[in-house]
Amino acid sequence: MSKIMPSSGFSLIWKLLLLAKCWRAQGQDSDSPIITYCPNNLKIDVPSPFQSLRVFWEEPTAVDDNGSMTVTKSHTSGAIFPADQTTIVQYVFTNSGRRSSECRFEILLSRTCDVLMPCVDNGLCYNNFRSSGECMLVPYSYTLCNHNVDTTPPQCVDVPNDIYETVELGIPRPAVFWNEPTCTDDSGKASIFSRSHSPFTFFTVGETTVLYTCEDTSGNINTCTFTVNVTWVDTTPPVSNCREDVALVIELGEAGGFVVWSEPTATDISGTAVLSTRSHRPGSWFHIGATTVTYGFTDASGNTGVCLFVVVVETEDTIPPTVAGCMLGGLKQTVGIGELGAVVSWAEPTATEISGTTILVSQSHSPGDFFPVGVTEVTYTFSDASGNTAACKFSVEISSVNTTFSSVCDNIPVDIVETVELGTNGTIINWTEPTCSDTFGNAAFFLFKSHTPPSFFTVGTTTVNYTCLSTSGKTSHCVISQLP
């Protein structure tokens, strides 16, 4: 058999694709990283002339719930290993909680005597084994044959720069894309032999090395790497459980009121959101109308969430009008025996209200009406714009008496006219009261006075009534008109 041994500077490169096997660290708990791929042990036969061999493998991988991990390793894929020796390769994955998991496998290179390549022109090569197991050449006549051996590895071209990706906090594994590198070689033929990751692969948070291996037609290989760095970033603002609008109803005429409410809170994907600003506190004073209340919440990344609600203060009129000039004592008048009744006049009552608008809704009688003998109730009803009502009630009593004797009102003032400034509601007016006497000299006094001097009169015409009663039971009625 014809053999030729290679020169001492020649290196043999072994390409290795290994099946998955996972070893877990002793004492690992549920918080430790999970090994998703770990190579099997490897035994490689190495031709005798070689003292070492470059070995490649697909690197172990792991995942962790916390996202970020660090990897320590005893050897890197593509390292040179010595022959006739077992080497332990170890990968340790450690997460942020200092929990770790380990992947371990062995590489054994065993030298053998083997034919490396054919030799032409009857060149002869013999193998002879000594007790030591080494391989030797036995001298023999042969013809030297030469072969051109391609030992130049291919080159990786257009290798991506390190990739830095940010992903929203809470998203565990983003997909990352890149343009794959290409392979070139002096022979003109080279291709990607293996890759640790492909574009659009999902990457966990942290730094991951991506490895590409190029191979030419002579079996020479070369590797290129770049890293994918995935970082969590929090751009999501806190979410508040903002409350509904708050309403307060106050009495008409009040300027505002104190309003209380349950303050809103907020949550955030980072777990922490604090109250940073607020425009008002519960129990603050609010004027009539709508006021916007603002709460601001901030997370650890400085993101701010806002809660807005409106405090509405409205007025309500629940107070009825105030009646003035109601003759609570009533009116009494006498007529001669046999008369059916009499015409009675009086100063009509008025009403005021905080809203400024009061109307006379109804009245049962008017001054100058005829009243029959007996007691008649007179009712005035006033209302404001909110529907609140107030009533004035008094009685008119007509009595039949002997009119042989009568009482007289003397010195009755003439009608009084006063002027007031425009926009003034009224004024105070004074007058000299009339006198009361009896036609037959009996004592007499005023039974009723609708007003006493001085009194306040509103703009308009007001009738002042006096009723004179003598000791003989005779009455007389006199009237004064006030025109402020």
From TrEMBL:
Sorted keywords for this record are: Repeat, Signal
Q: Which residues form the signal peptide?
A: 1-27
Q: Which residues form the HYR domain?
A: 28-111, 149-232, 233-315, 316-400, 401-484
Which InterPro entries does this entry report, sorted A to Z?
A: HYR_dom
What is this protein's name?
Hyalin
Question: What organism does this protein naturally occur in?
Answer: Holothuria leucospilota
